[in-house]
Amino acid sequence: MLFCDTHCHLDLDYYETDREEVIDRACQSQVKMMINAGIDMASSRFSVDLARRFPGVIFAAIGFHPNDCAGIKTTDLLELRELATQPGVVAIGEIGLDYYRDYTPRDKQRTTFERQLTLAAEFDLPVIIHDREATADLLPILKNWASSLSETLRIKSLPGVLHAFDDSAETAEEMAAYGFMFGIGGPVTYPNARARREIIARLPLDRLLLETDAPFLTPQAHRGHRNEPAYIPLIAEQVAVCLNLPLDTIADATTSNARRLFRI
Question: What is the reported pLDDT for 102?
Fold first, then answer.
């Protein structure tokens, strides 16, 4: 079996003392591919550097998280454009809207989000979408962007992934029609996540991706401790239960989905 962690943050200081060991543990757990998601300029640079250091294992996503874009400058967007051309860059993300925190004014979040969507279209790169308590504003922006994409772009049919998806099955069906995939992480393993598991059971297998969001959202078996990509099989096991399918089927399908979306 081969797994892909489609969303982690190995650049963060949580891994400062053992980053290479964490990557090695992931590979030993058959998590042979990891996508490191940027949240600001520094982490986007770091993601690109990780992709250089671990070619074919680590891939980079670059972008500004809504909670980290209050101070974004025009020069930052210009640097993102330059980073988008670098080897190993496979997505623009983590981008979106977050109304749970109050770190960035909402109008600034929306403007920055739309500018990064424009960047994704320019470079024909899929997007990794963060949505926390902002669905009413985020989905119309996202649907308008996806609808306006040129038919000549590869992302027209596969525009991106809704990270840490926990919305309704109706929203999933609506966004799947635009070509989006859905990131499933550690919360699916939590005892109180019955409603989340019921929604996942209704999602099409060819739209599912596995992700850790490491160091956050640790699966139940290690809850209270730092998350890491090596725990992807624990998430896969719970998804297999939700869909009543063998684990190797989940591994094969989600890895194939990751390869199709991120072209890896």
Answer: 86
